[in-house]
Amino acid sequence: MKWKLSTVDISLVGMFVALMAIGANVTSIAPFMVVGGVPITLQTFFAILAGAILGSRIGAISMFVYTFVGLVGVPVFAKFGGGFTHLFSPTFGFIISFIFTAYVTGKIVDKKRTVHTYILASLIGMSINYLFGTNWMYFSYKLWAEAPEGFSYSMAWLWMIVPLPKDILLSIGAAVFAHRFERTVVSRGHFKSLRRTV
Q1: Per-residue pLDDT for 189 more than 70?
Q2: Where residue 162 falls among pLDDT bands split at 50, 70, 90?
Q3: Do the domain assignments include residue 30?
Q4: So what's the pLDDT on residue 20?
Q5: Is 1 contained in some domain?
Q6: How far is Cα 50 from Cα 155, in angstroms, rounded to an integer?
């Protein structure tokens, strides 16, 4: 197994950390894009794109670095947040899930590089994001956070209906973009180091 990152790998990890920070703060210019305390962001899109373009290993590393950078205090999370206290946020499960989203998306794409595989991988990656994040949110409200009045498991999922159409469309868009990138750039010999697998 090759664990050493090349200069290109490190640069791309940094680029996706920056993209995640930008995607996390769409609500800074559109504050109405918050439903039930859940910001509607572009992070799922970029997490999927990281896995589909960088591969499972480097994609997951980029999402881990993003999470770590935010936890140490750099304001890269939604609403320009950062710091260790985010571990106790009801929405922190979505942030953790980005690591698994990128990894699984990349693993599926590594097996077969057809546009249908890219789309399937992206939708599965999005599903991981929703499953992990929504369940974390539910249990955090039940165990340590102050839950809204009448909060229930079904309410948690009802909140997710609002960003769902957007995330489905963006996931498919990420898949198509990544597939085209593979055909026009990677397959011609550029950035081959991005396709190392664990």
Answers
A1: no
A2: confident
A3: yes
A4: 96
A5: no
A6: 30
Residue 37: CA count within 13 A, CB half-sphere: 19
Categorise residue 81: left if φ over 0, alpha if ψ from -120 to 50, beta otherwise.
beta
User: Tell me, what CATH number does 125's domain have?
Assistant: 1.10.1760.20
CB atoms near residue 78 (< 10 Å): 25
CA distance 187 to 117: 16
Start-to-end CA span in the chain (Å): 6
Give the number of other CB atoms < 10 A from CB of residue 40.
Answer: 18
Residue 20 lies inside a defined structural domain of this protein: yes
Q: Round the average pLDDT of the chain to a whole number and report it.
A: 88
Which residue is it, tokens 């499953």?
A: 131
Its domain, for residue 184, covers 7-195
Is residue 127 classed exposed, middle or buried when 0-12, 13-18 and 19+ CB atoms within 10 A define those classes?
Answer: middle
Q: What is the tally of structural domains in the chain?
A: 1
CB-based burial, 145-181: b 16+ in 10 Å, e otherwise: bebeeebeeeebeebbeebeeebeebbbebbebbbeb
Q: Give the pLDDT score at 38.
A: 60
